[in-house]
Design brief:
- The chain is of the alpha/beta class and 308 residues long.
- It is built from eight helices and nine strands.
- The strands form three sheets. A five-stranded antiparallel sheet has the order 1-2-7-8-9. It has a two-stranded parallel sheet with strand order 3-4. Strands 5-6 form a two-stranded parallel sheet.
- Helix 4 packs antiparallel against helix 7 and helix 7 crosses helix 8.
- It starts with a helix and ends with a strand.
Amino acid sequence: MIIVTLIASLAAGMVWQQYRAVQIEAADRARAQSAWILQGALDWARLILLEDAKGNRNKAVDHLGEPWAVPLAEARLSTFLAAERTEASADDGPEAFLSGTIEDAQSRYNLQALVAGAQVAPLEQRVLERLCSQVNAPPGTAAAIIAGLRAAFPAPASGASSPTSEVETGPLQPAGLDQLNWLGLSADTVARLQPYVVLLPKATPVNLNTAPREVIAALFDGVDLASAERIVQARKGQPLQKPEDASAYLPSTVVIAPSRAAVQSSYYVVTGRLRLEERQLEQRSLIERQGLTMVVLARERISQILER
């Protein structure tokens, strides 16, 4: 009986090890396949942005009526990934679905405007305060963001041409909006601000052809949501050809500075989502369009388990 028990235990251990090895190999294979599919989606987005840049050579105007702004609806990949193009073979494949979007990062207010200069510009501070008020953020949110960002991105010393890249003391430099919780913001506050603010590598103007009305209203003193909504509705029929065209829909006292408002963009956020049964893998990439060159500045992958 002892020998039989020992042999059964050894056999069970061997079966378990074999099962575990198969599971690990399957997970590694699925991870590699998912990475290649998402890389293909990113290359597709870069190609669309490249074609848009070629079409805008004569007059650079980016708006929501262009092909890049059309999201890719969730499409089943099982049919295309099947070895044989038959209905039976397609049904035998994994349930894989791909979707994605390209968003204009310059449709949001860039928080880099708060760290330029020895002192924060009063106008930029008012812009952030108005945005925080619109999303019902807790009191003091704007002050906390400004203090945290200026501590993480100190102004250059006298005679220096750019801010120091490393800070010996103070908070870590957030690389994206999701990392603003390092500055003491709650996850709910960051989620409320995310549709309206962005943190890019350098200061950029807001694209009036793609910005939501909340950002347009906060960008200028003396502009309410109704005036901003007139711009949003007007650009649907005819996109703004230059920033000054927005003056027709704003109070006469509003001054549109080219450094703060534009009608073209250089930064885009590409999001690809791959759903495999109950698991979803999302990849977000920040792309800078430099002429006809698409440079991937940052890439982030998030794995989620979907609720049934």
